[in-house]
Amino acid sequence: MRLCHKLRRRQSAAGKIPLFYRNGVPACLILRGCKHGRAGEDFVSSGGFAIMPLLPTGLTVSAYPPSSFLFRLTVAFIGALAFMQVYSIQSILPLLMRHFQADEVQIGLAVGVTVMGMGLMSPFIGMLSDAFGRRWMICSAIFFYSLPVALSAYAPTIESFTLLRFLVGVFVPGMTVCLIAYLGEEFESKHIGKLMAFYVCGTVFGGFSGRFLLGHLTQWIGWQFSMLLLSGLSFAGFLLVLWQLPPSRHFVAKPQLSTAMRSLVSHLHNRIVLSSCALGFFVLFSLVGCFSFINLRLAQAPYHLNTAQLANIFSVYLIGMIITPAATWLLRKFGAPRTMALSLALSVCGIVISLAQPLMLVFCGLILMSTGVFITQSATISYISLHVREGRSLATGLYYMAYYCGGTAGAWLCALSFQTWQWQGVVGTLLLAQCIGLIIIFSVIWQTSPRAQG
């Protein structure tokens, strides 16, 4: 039987009781002569044998321990896959504007609809994963995610291209929302912060690599064939995750719509969930608005950067990826509210510096801005995972719905600002959004955290 697959049988020193071990830890004992049992409860029986768990009820067991580098790498890899295609076109926006003869608002919409699809699907994906399981949803989402990326290479108009970009976003929550719920179920709270840091690092690397690869490949072989190559990379990632991601061991299916609706009503009255959602809205608003239109600025005079050079701008994401694990230390030392406030203030400083004329100062401003946003995101999702116990995937889905809707709003409003006032207008819009985020932290999140008040 599969229940004790890969478990090594030993004899216990006391009484020669047959034991099975996993990773050197006694996992279950075998009792002869038992013919009845209830799977998933006290014991499981088969063929006159009963398998009784030695681990206490509620103790987390995973195929990989949370300290396993391979498992952490798998978590980061899923995060990278999720965001590799989402913002990749930002590095070639000037080229797409010329190819489709589109204006700033149309091309901004092509970026924004991807995150709109992510936002609209996030709460529904949470409900589906509550019914059908986390791992199945993650693997299916990665597979279907690669298809509209390939088809977008053949889009004849900006409207069809925008529709396909929307479909790309529809499948992303199957990776992001379900992975966070998976980690929350499979591991103890003391491990979640570090695993979330690896996940955020993966999303940062994926966001960078998609933009960087598409920009440089476009310079060599054109944007259509480059999109096909990125689609192939996503499909290869599907095969790797299917092989490496361990099955859920603590998932309990909850397909009832009434249960989901009760959880939804509860979350909509939960100040922790609502304030986190509001903060997430303005976090991605800032990130998408900034990096969608900084390239349009740098493609103009006096910079005149080409596609490959514009792709290099996104190397600031790598610096953010290196610094973001510091969020774990900051969370332990200062708590989530203080970490959010410090990192968002850092992001505000970066936005202001980006107004400078020298390219190096612009680059430094982008580093500060993106790093602050990444740490804020890591702190916020850790805050939700630690404070929400029931309907966790739905709460995460609500957070991501607000988060991605913020990205859509950022792309649209910053497009209008750039069209009217150029980069200065974008900076003003971003500063307004981040100031609202700081108000949310100090007026709501700070008040609901005893540690912050102390």
List keywords for this structure.
Growth Hormone, Chain: A, Inner membrane transport protein ynfM, 5 strands, mainly alpha, 2 domains, 454 residues, 17 helices
Summarize the structure.
By secondary structure, this protein is mainly α. It has helices at about 70-85, 95-100, 105-130, 135-150, 160-170, 175-185, 190-220, 225-245, 255-270, 270-300, 305-315, 315-325, 325-335, 335-355, 360-385, 390-445, 450-454; strands spanning about 10, 20, 25-30, 45, 50-55.
How would you sum up this structure, described in words?
The chain is built from 17 helices and 5 strands. The chain is 71% helix and 6% strand. It has 454 residues and is mostly helical. The protein folds into 2 domains: 69-248, Up-down Bundle (Growth Hormone, Chain: A); 267-453, MFS general substrate transporter like domains (Growth Hormone, Chain: A), CATH 1.20.1250. The protein has helices at residues 69-84, 93-100, 104-132, 134-151, 158-171, 173-186, 189-221, 223-244, 257-268, 271-298, 307-313, 316-323, 326-334, 336-353, 359-387, 392-445, 450-453; strands at 8-11, 18-22, 25-32, 44-46, 49-53.
The tally of beta strands, per DSSP, is: 5
Quickly name the level 1 CATH class of the largest domain: Mainly Alpha
CATH architecture of the largest domain: Up-down Bundle
- Helices, by number, come to 17
Helix-strand sequence: EEEEEHHHHHHHHHHHHHHHHH
Largest sheet: 5 strands, antiparallel
Question: Can you tell me the overall shape?
Answer: globular
CATH topology of the largest domain: Growth Hormone, Chain: A
Radius of gyration: 24 Å
InterPro entries: MFS (IPR011701), MFS_dom (IPR020846), MFS_trans_sf (IPR036259), Sugar_transporter_CS (IPR005829)
Main location: membrane
Keywords: Cell membrane, Membrane, Transmembrane, Transmembrane helix, Transport
Domain Major facilitator superfamily (MFS) profile: 71-449
